[in-house]
Structures are given as structure tokens and as C-alpha cells.
Amino acid sequence: MATATANYQECIDACNECLADCLACAAAMIGEETKNDCPKCCLECAAICRACVEVMAIGGERAADLCRICADVCEHCAEECSAYKHKHCQKCEKSCRRCAETCQAVAA
């Protein structure tokens, strides 16, 4: 199991970064007029990233399946955040794209 967790480490790190950036973005967008569902999308993305980290950390059998879903959610969140020029949205977009990339690698 230690080997499985080691193989997931890059993805775990990307998911944790994405989780933090999504929560920060959602918090910063509270009370802002929005063009889309950015805040809600960020909260959803944070939740799936958290679940992904937990499953990878235990070397779960369904980690690849969950990573496939996480990659899709992260890509959608990145698109939502790309509509804004706020620093927190740009940071969130970047970490979502990185997370999607690492999750796709695990899912492959």
C-alpha cells in the first residue's frame, strides 16, 4: 500500500493545492456579482479533490475512477474561473488545470 500511495503523491499534492485554492476563491467571491457559477463550482471541486486525496491516501481500489471524475470537475471549474481576472480566480484556474492533468495521469 505504501507503493500505491507513493505513486499517487504528485496527484495528492495537486489535489490538496486545488482544494485550498478552490476554497479561497469561493470565499473571495462571496458577495461578488458573478457571471457564472464560479463560487459553487469551486466548492464542488474542493469537495471532490478532498475525496480524491482520501481515497488515494489509503491506496483505494477506485482511486483511478475517482480521479477521472475529479479531472472532469477540475476542468469545468477552471473554465468557470477563467471568466474572471481576479488573482484568486486565476490562481484557482491554474491549480485546477494542474490537478486535472495529474488526475488524468492516475486515471489512465
Automatic annotation (TrEMBL):
InterPro entries, A to Z: Csp_YhjQ, YHJQ-like
Top-rank taxon: Bacteria
One Pfam family from the record: Csp
Name of the protein in its database record: Cysteine-rich protein YhjQ
Species for this entry: Botrimarina colliarenosi
